[in-house]
Design goal:
With about 250 residues, the chain is an alpha/beta fold. It contains ten helices and eight strands. Strands 1, 2, 3, 4, 5, 6, 7 and 8 form an eight-stranded mixed sheet that branches. Helix 1 packs across helix 8 and helix 6 packs antiparallel against helix 10. The chain is globular.
């Protein structure tokens, strides 16, 4: 099994503040596919963003992460149980879950071992939804600058698993019957320059850069973007979503 790599505990507060929220349309698509409403498992929940939404629809939500610091920032809800557990080996009973979700995290897992655990803890007919999001788009003037930063400045500091994100999970063989492609969805939010600075600083690659060099490379990037950014303006930011949704093959 792959060793645990926790890339977010050291900046969990930054992660919570600036990570984008997933669209209501995505949750609607998942819920329409999943008639059961008893138990759901949000794996690698981070700060509980997805668990919070699932709690509106399921009797009980179990939300796990390897980072206690991330879980400290998750919302307290009566029907959500948080726990520090590996994705690939949990203490859950067999055949427990109607729905299992993984948002922007499956690339960190030992994927074959995780899928075996998914099969073990899923009820017959249970559903898996796994999705991620790609590089933010802010318009034709801004995008080439951010793409260069992503590839050339932050690029050497990404873990190898980032390749799975860049491939939009196409290399993953999901154990699903007639899975649905989640690529029709996207995240939209608005950024001013300080907000973009905060978001980019939450990247694990940027945090590794800071750890090695003692300086944040986003500072220089924002200085480069300033002449291109309309003064005191919030720009529309779009993150492309991708992933799979379907019934789990037992």
């Amino acid at each position: 099994m792959k060793p645990i790599r926790d890339r977010f505990s050291g900046h969990s507060d930054l992660y919570k503040k600036y990570r984008p929220e997933y669209p209501e349309a995505l949750y609607r698509a998942i819920l329409e596919f999943c008639p059961g409403r008893q138990n759901s498992w949000d794996c690698a929940t981070g700060n509980g963003q997805v668990a919070r939404e699932l709690a509106r629809h399921f009797k009980r939500v179990y939300a796990t992460d390897i980072s206690p610091n991330q879980l400290k920032h998750a919302p307290f809800l009566d029907n959500v149980t948080y726990g520090v557990q590996r994705a690939e080996s949990t203490s859950f009973d067999a055949h427990l879950f109607d729905l299992i979700t993984v948002a922007q995290a499956i690339h960190w897992f030992d994927i074959p071992a995780f899928f075996e655990e998914v099969k073990r803890v899923s009820r017959p007919g249970g559903v898996l939804a796994a999705w991620g999001y790609g590089l933010v788009s802010l318009g034709p003037q801004i995008d080439p600058v951010i793409a260069h930063f992503y590839r050339e400045i932050a690029g050497p500091y990404w873990d190898g698993e980032r390749r799975i994100i860049d491939e939009q999970y196409r290399s993953i063989q999901f154990p699903l019957e007639a899975g649905i492609d989640l690529g029709a969805f996207s995240i939209e939010r608005r950024f001013d320059l300080p907000g973009l600075h905060g978001y980019l600083s939450s990247w694990s690659s940027v945090q590794k850069y800071i750890g090695k060099h003692g300086a944040n490379p986003v500072d220089e990037l924002v200085s480069e973007l300033k002449p291109l950014w309309p003064k005191d303006t919030m720009l529309r930011a779009v993150f492309p979503l991708f992933g799979r949704l379907g019934h789990i093959v037992q």
